[in-house]
Amino acid sequence: MDQSKEQRILNTVSYNAVKGDPESVMKCIDKYCSQYEWAMNVGDEKGLILDKIVEEADPSVVLELGTYCGYSAIRIARLLKPKARLLTIEFNPEFASIAKEIIDIAGLSDKVTILEGHSEDIIPQLKKKYEVETLDFVFLDHWKERYAPDTVLLEECGLLRKGSILLADNVVFPGAPEFLKYVRNNQRFECTSYPSHLEYMQVEDAMEKAVYLG
Ligand SMILES: CNc1ncnc2c1ncn2[C@@H]1O[C@H](/C=C/CNC(=O)c2cc(-c3ccc(F)cc3)cc(O)c2O)[C@H](F)[C@H]1O
Ligand SMILES: [Mg+2]
């Protein structure tokens, strides 16, 4: 049976990237996905916005929803201070195993833990099973209609504290209208829009930052 697109992305990374160099892994994926096969990585344009927001936040505990091939996990983890860690949730076993290998090639396995399963099952386990107190930063990039319910779940589970930052990809395309409605009409969140473009395309997109005010 011929390989999946995600397997081909792993092949190009393992063949062309410099082991232990996150930047070269990112470049390799961006080059492949802009020249050969489009894939839903946050990409280099929105990635730069993500970088700035992560650097400004300098988070110790990060949660990502939707690992996919691990591109944004690498993008975030490469900026984290030594003791900081990133937990990323992925329910597709093929994607989880490909992401694990790509994150390992980037040399970031000590900072990144892939939690295999459904966000709505794993989020309630973060405190007890994964020793999380509260989350400093959450990157939402999974199924778009799950952004809002999972935000409510994070709050209900006591995982957000004053100043916790939520950053959501694709709020324009494919779009996350319920999420935008929820956070923008909620005085417990301070929202900022970051207009950009869909990864590797000219199509308009944006990311939304929602800071939890407690
Ligand atoms: C719902 N709970 C989940 N728990 C754990 N893993 C999950 C969960 N839900 C999904 N996953 C996991 O998270 C990933 C899903 C990412 C979804 N992303 C997109 O759809 C998405 C789509 C486009 C896009 C743009 C234009 C176009 F023409 C077609 C597509 C662009 C983007 O940047 C995206 O992020 C993964 F695949 C899935 O297993
Ligand atoms: Mg996305």
Largest sheet: 7 strands, mixed
Please state the average pLDDT score.
98
What best-fitting shape do the alpha-carbon axes yield? globular
Strand order of the largest sheet: 3-2-1-4-5-7-6
Bound molecules: ligand 659, magnesium ion
Look at the helices and sheets and give the structural class.
Answer: alpha/beta
Uncertain regions spanning at least 5 consecutive residues: none
What is the CA–CA distance across the termini? 51 Å
The H-and-E topology, N to C, reads as HHHEHEHEHHEHEHHEE
Radius of gyration: 16 Å
Please estimate the helix content. 40-55%
> Which percent range describes the beta-strand content?
15-25%
Tally of alpha and pi helices: 10
Q: SSE layout and pairings?
A:
Blueprint (H helix, E strand, L loop, with lengths): L4 H12 L5 H14 L7 H15 L3 E5 L5 H7 L7 E6 L2 H13 L6 E5 L2 H4 L3 H4 L5 E6 L6 H10 L3 E9 L2 H5 L1 H8 L4 E9 L6 E9 L2
Parallel strand pairs: 1-2, 1-4, 2-3, 4-5
Antiparallel strand pairs: 5-7, 6-7
Helix pairs in contact: 1-2, 1-5, 3-4, 8-10
Descriptive account of the structure:
By secondary structure, this protein is an alpha/beta fold. It contains ten helices and seven strands. It has helices spanning 5-16, 22-35, 43-57, 71-77, 93-105, 119-122, 126-129, 147-156, 171-175, 177-184; strands at residues 61-65, 85-90, 112-116, 135-140, 160-168, 189-197, 204-212. Strands 3-2-1-4-5-7-6 form a seven-stranded mixed beta sheet, sandwiched between helices. α8 (147-156) links the parallel β4 (135-140) and β5. α1 packs across α2, α1 runs parallel beside α5 and α3 (43-57) runs parallel beside α4 (71-77). It is globular. It starts with a helix and ends with a strand. The structure holds the ligand CNc1ncnc2c1ncn2[C@@H]1O[C@H](/C=C/CNC(=O)c2cc(-c3ccc(F)cc3)cc(O)c2O)[C@H](F)[C@H]1O and magnesium ion. The site of magnesium ion has 5 residues, from loops. The ligand CNc1ncnc2c1ncn2[C@@H]1O[C@H](/C=C/CNC(=O)c2cc(-c3ccc(F)cc3)cc(O)c2O)[C@H](F)[C@H]1O binds next to β2 and α9.
